[in-house]
Design brief:
This protein has 203 residues and is α+β, with helices and mostly antiparallel strands. It has one domain. Helix content is 34%, strand content 22%. The chain has an eight-stranded antiparallel sheet, sandwiched between helices.
């Protein structure tokens, strides 16, 4: 299971609430500064059937509509910090960076990799490339500290959420959102249908 994380969306909070309601995990949606909205999983498990029931993974892996981009996700997986960015352009493919204590930047497994420069440009902070690069290349500290410092370097809000100092429901204006049961059933049914299809063509 992914330990915890936060997704920052750029757009209207009501639109973020509507998007969250069509997802798989209960969340807190928190209006932040400068047009950003924080979305934090309220439970460790999503409403979907296993193996898609990791709450933070279900939140960060979900496609984000262009009207809520750019989007920046930060997830703590053990000691590792995973950073996902989705730009506001026509190509809304999610790209990843990973940081580990003692090593700094490492490959994010098999996930599509990005650069610190691309990350900074995507969130509107091209002037922050040097500071963010220096921070992520350094292996000192822990994922909580680096998450908060990365957002500060990029000029983005949500550092207390990313570092775990606050939970979403702690903040003024936070709205708890439960996923719609119909959407969860539809997702589970689609997954089961795909699994049966694979078994049939494979056998």
């Amino acid at each position: 299971m992914t330990d915890r994380g936060v997704l920052l969306l750029h757009g209207d909070a009501d639109r973020a609430v509507a998007w969250a309601r069509r997802g798989l995990v209960a969340v807190s949606v928190v209006p932040l500064e400068r047009g950003w909205v924080g979305v934090v999983a309220s439970a460790s498990r999503a409403a979907a059937d296993a193996p898609y029931d990791d709450g933070v993974a279900a939140l960060l892996a979900r496609p984000v509509p262009r009207r809520l981009c750019p989007a920046l996700g930060l997830a703590h997986v053990g000691e590792r910090l995973m950073v996902a960015v989705t730009s506001a352009g026509l190509q809304t493919r999610r790209m990843w960076l990973a940081w580990e204590p003692g090593a700094g930047l490492v490959r994010p497994g098999a996930l599509p990799i990005t650069t610190v420069a691309t990350l900074a440009r995507a969130v509107g902070a091209p002037q922050s490339v040097e500071v963010a690069s220096r921070l992520l290349r350094d292996g000192r500290g822990d994922s909580d500290t680096v998450a908060a410092e990365l957002l500060a370097a990029l000029g983005l809000p949500g550092g207390a959420l990313a570092s775990g100092r606050l939970i979403g429901s702690d903040l003024e204006g936070a709205e708890h959102v439960e996923p719609e049961a119909q959407g969860v059933r539809r997702f589970n049914r689609r997954v089961r249908d795909e699994e049966r299809w694979r078994e049939e063509i494979g056998g």
